[in-house]
Amino acid sequence: MSRDTPRARWLLASVLVPAFTLAAAGAFWLQARGHAELEAAFQRELGLLVLLPRLREDVRRLDDATGQYLQSGDRARLDERRRVLGDVRRLEAALSQAADGPEERALTDRLGRELAAVLSEQEQWIARRSQGRLARGPAVRLSAGEDAVADVVSVLTGVKDANRARLEERRRRMERSGRAA
């Protein structure tokens, strides 16, 4: 049997205590890093949730401005439409840039396609109106017809729902991580 001397105990303690301290510091560092990453993702996704209602409202304003131009022929409505279109493009770019998962990227791609289809159709009607090939009566019926932005809004709702689910999952992971510490 080995003899247990004070010197052997001191040597064992001088090796184990620093090793334990390093291991504990590493674990806390990893946990802090994980929390920081989760917090950054949480803030990014929260920012996306703030963008979505603004984008939806701007798409509606775009549709309204187009409808008002088609009905009245007032060039001021086209200027307003151009301003709103610039806002929509900026918000769409911010949303696409911040999309972080395959589901969100697919939804933002679909949003881009739906928005492009709506804009293309609107541009055709605007061109006809500006060339005098669309009378006021048909323009009123056209703008009062089906909701051209309904598909865009449904995609925005899908993005919001996916984002909300991811946000909730990140919140749960943060809670679990906090409890583990």
Describe this structure in words.
- The longest helix has 67 residues.
- This protein has 181 residues and is mostly helical.
- The protein contains five helices and no strands.
Number of helical segments? Answer: 5
* Low-pLDDT ranges: none
| Overall radius of gyration | 29 Å
Helix content: over 70%
Number of strands: 0
Series of secondary-structure elements, N-terminal to C-terminal: HHHHH
> How much beta, percentage-wise?
under 5%
Q: Report the end-to-end length measured between terminal Cα atoms.
A: 40 Å
The 3D shape can be described as rod-shaped
* Main beta-sheet annotation: none
Q: Main attributes?
A:
5 helices, 181 residues
Element layout with pairings:
Layout: H1 6-72, H2 75-98, H3 102-130, H4 136-144, H5 150-180
Helix pairs in contact: 1-2, 1-3, 1-4, 1-5, 3-5
